[in-house]
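Re: the multi-chain job from yesterday

Posting the exact lines I submitted so nobody has to dig through the queue logs.
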Amino acid sequence: GAVVSQHPSRVICKSGTSVKIECRSLDFQATTMFWYRQFPKKSLMLMATSNEGSKATYEQGVEKDKFLINHASLTLSTLTVTSAHPEDSSFYICSARPRGTTNTGELFFGEGSRLTVL
Amino acid sequence: ILNVEQSPQSLHVQEGDSTNFTCSFPSSNFYALHWYRWETAKSPEALFVMTLNGDEKKKGRISATLNTKEGYSYLYIKGSQPEDSATYLCAFSDYKLSFGAGTTVTVRA
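And the result, structure tokens for all chains:
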């Protein structure tokens, strides 16, 4: 099956620094990638939809200047948490929609990134 | 924010027993209902994507049904095995996916 690689899997950073998380589709092209955040015992919350070559679409309540998303190629999307603070500590996970599929098709997920901001 | 509810939050099953759990979702603007299996330290993997009312899908010992009119789906595991232990996520699709919080299944040998 299709593989999505997400790095890093764990990151610890100091408050005020920025952290970049990468999401790569290894064996397919992804025109659309999604970024989610998960709080303990809660569902995956969609943060933004990333489309190759265009600006990301952010969900209501998600600060676009805090969570920078770049989808510069058909196989790579990045999420940068800028000026991270302890409340940004969370589990972040990406998913990718293969090129040519619709919103009724399955998504392929990365393994997630655990961010801890000290 | 669409309300996708999964019940129960967790369950324990004896090896060999069968089990099932539910996902409820809004019955309007329905595109598809997804089920994913998420094992610890791995990526969620798609089990089923269902689009039609009355759909039933099966993969090995796992099957799912869909009722779009009343807004629910059941996932069944027949003859549970330890390798079935995972969190099972459902997701409702209108123009984007909205996930439930998952049902965590633990199969005891």
